[in-house]
Amino acid sequence: LDTPLFAGLPGDVAVSFEFFPPKSDAMMLQLWDVVQALAPLAPEFVSVTYGAGGTTRDRTHGTVARIISEARLPAAAHLTCVDATKAEVNAVAEAYWEAGVRHIVALRGDMGEPGAPFVPHPEGYQNAADLVAGLKAIAPFDISVAAYPEMHPDSASPEADIDNLKRKLDAGASRAISQFFFEPETFFRFRDRLAAAGIDAPVLPGILPVSNFAQTRKFAAACGAAIPAWMEGLFAGLDTHPAARQLVAATVAAEFCRRLYAGGVRNFHFYTLNRAELSYAICHLLGVRPKAAAAIQEKAA
Ligand code: FAD
């Protein structure tokens, strides 16, 4: 854990960035600033989430298509099974393929009502593994799936959750992106369990740079991620000190990623929440530097 992160430019780190589809023209402008700020870092890919029950279908499509055609970045579209027949989901996937989208993040999704148990549509895909198989039957998409270092709340046991991840990879996914977590050891233990289960596909740690602690607590409660007591203590008392809070946020995120890097992690997936500064700063600390536009476009091609 003593890697002198600030002493060298490793240049061996690959990053990806996740965005959500903007709800208004003003938010689209803001996202575009973020995309342009992060694009020079030549991410392996960026991805755009899909709202509960397909509520953002058109906005996700429009955002992904614009990132590919205007920012010339490799972009992935998230897609879920919720509240849709197989035919409806297949039609969305076919439209993506026609629009030049080659990478899908395939998810089961959650019911619209928070905490409600998942009930598959009677004519729909039953879960993410079923969706992956369906997508592969449509076109040779590159497919990413979700993984849970602290176990998915619906899972009977950590082993059952890893079996489920294995089913998604066996159905044709080529990598997984993890739910966020706040202790590097959580990811290292998960990585060991995956190796023991014979899973060798890349599993990218999902990094949520925390700046709004109250919002993070809400996200974590919804997905079962543990918030360490030390983190609560570090952000306490900073609600009315936004500049200091931002500096603390950067320090926490930098230390977190430094420890992941020291533990051998070389791929980082950032939940940007459509903000560039923290993700950019962490990338910089990890030795990721802007690249020429030509190199980025070569990656997108
Ligand atoms: P699955 O892999 O299908 O599994 C869900 C749970 O059900 C697991 O516990 C699994 O063990 C269990 N299970 C599945 N199949 C079986 C079976 N046959 N037998 C027994 N148990 C089974 N949500 C959105 O709405 N939009 C998004 O854009 C989005 N993006 C995400 C991106 C990432 C990187 C992550 C980590 C999550 C994202 N989510 C998104 C949230 C996700 O939809 C939820 O976590 C959802 O509850 C589970 O989706 P999944 O794809 O992991 O489901």
Strand-helix topology:
Elements: E1 14-19, H1 25-38, E2 45-48, H2 57-71, E3 75-80, H3 86-98, E4 103-107, H4 128-138, E5 142-147, H5 158-170, E6 175-180, H6 184-196, E7 203-207, H7 213-223, H8 229-235, H9 242-262, E8 267-271, H10 277-285, H11 293-300
Parallel strand pairs: 1-2, 1-8, 2-3, 3-4, 4-5, 5-6, 6-7, 7-8
Helix pairs in contact: 4-5, 6-9, 9-10
The protein binds flavin-adenine dinucleotide.
Helical coverage, percent range? 40-55%
| Number of alpha- plus pi-helical segments | 11
Largest sheet: 8 strands, parallel, barrel
Low-confidence regions: none
Descriptive notes:
The protein is 45% helix and 14% strand. With 301 residues, it is of the alpha/beta class. An 8-stranded parallel β-barrel has the order 1-2-3-4-5-6-7-8, surrounded by 4 helices. β5 (142-147), α5 (158-170) and β6 form a beta-alpha-beta unit. α4 packs parallel to α5, α6 runs parallel beside α9 (242-262) and α9 (242-262) runs parallel beside α10. The longest helix is centred in the C-terminal third of the chain and has 21 residues, at 242-262. The chain is globular. The two termini are 37 Å apart. Residues 49-50, 52, 78, 80, 105, 107-110, 127-128, 146, 152, 154-155, 160-161, 164, 168, 177, 179, 206 line the site of flavin-adenine dinucleotide. It comes from Novosphingobium umbonatum. One of its GO terms (biological process) is tetrahydrofolate interconversion.
